[in-house]
Input
Amino acid sequence: MSTVKHSTSQLTLLAAVLWRRCSFRVEPGRPSLDEPFLADGSPSDNERTECAQGPAHRPPLVLFNRRTSLESWFLSSTPGNEATSRPGAFVTTRWSLVLSGANSKSQEKDTHAALAELCRIYWRPIFAFVSRRGYSAEDAEDLTQDFFVMILEGDWLQKANPSRGRFRSLLLKSLQNFLSDAADKTYTRKRGGDVSFVSWDAWMAEAPSELSMSTQTVQSLPAERLFDVQWAATVVERALRRLRDECERKGRLRVFDALSAYLIAERDDVSCASLAATLGVPQGTVKKLLYRMRQRYRWLLRDEVAQTVENPADIEDELRHLCGALAASSEQAR
Amino acid sequence: MNFYRFTDSLGTITSQSNECPHCRTAVRVSNGGCLRCLLQAGLTEDEDPGSESLDAFLSEME
Output
């Protein structure tokens, strides 16, 4: 028994050493925001072993006018997020769950729940794309709704050949095809009847977007670029919201309010003295808080991206794609 | 383009461009941060700190 304990202790020590050697990689070419905070701000090994982060609170969604299985899918709890919040995560994500269950009857319920959750999260890019294609507000809402119905009630995954790529790119391609078909049919839609509408107000209230764009930017972007910008905003806003929720759960919302604006600030732009005065804590505490909040934000951001890709190795590519889309959008807006 | 509802789905449509001094992108999110820079931050990979790390520290604050 003592041998086992000794071996476990050795393994723990080895893991700790490896972890410390592998941590804190810094993006080349850009001064580390965290360097001043590493000395005493790095987390202990014990802190890596658990993650209490659960899914953010989600009020129930409201659908009306038609009772379909769509409703139950949207209202179902979603597997996956709890698992991905644990260390070494990014293994079973919503998208990988959807792909693995695409052709499995036994996993149908979980697959649909995960897919419905992805649609619920990423409705804004879809709606923005449809609106940008010139449809009236009512038609854009209806088309978005119909697109969801096609995704969730039909055999979208099988038809879309999800061998297959990322959720974002597959969804965009499907949306383009869907609108093309809708245009061929001279899309006209009557409200009411057997039509199921998403409750837009509820969706907006659930996750209000505070994305700020200039009129010039909005008007200059093609639909595909607007889709990507909205997608990027959704990812970032969800990560920020989760970080905010974690602070709020600890009764430290004021910490988030004071420091969240500095998550990406250059070292010289951060006045620790001023922030310390605002929060009523020593400057050293501000440095540690900033370090941990930045670290946690990065992890939450990558976790959000991970939910939409099949392979963890795709996270970086997806982030680079979205960064590239934003860079291109700023060029087009000029 | 019909902005009704679509603009509802955005936070703010501003008449002025609010360019980030670092990346020149003019799209901001809720905390006033530059969307592109906030995304770029994700390209620096950490080991998972777990929320315990931040939680524990927040708890220790007086």
In short: Residues 42 and 61 of chain B are 27 Å apart (CA to CA). The helical segments of chain B are 6-9, 35-40, 50-60. Residues 1-43 of chain B form one domain. Chain B is about 35% helix and 5% strand.
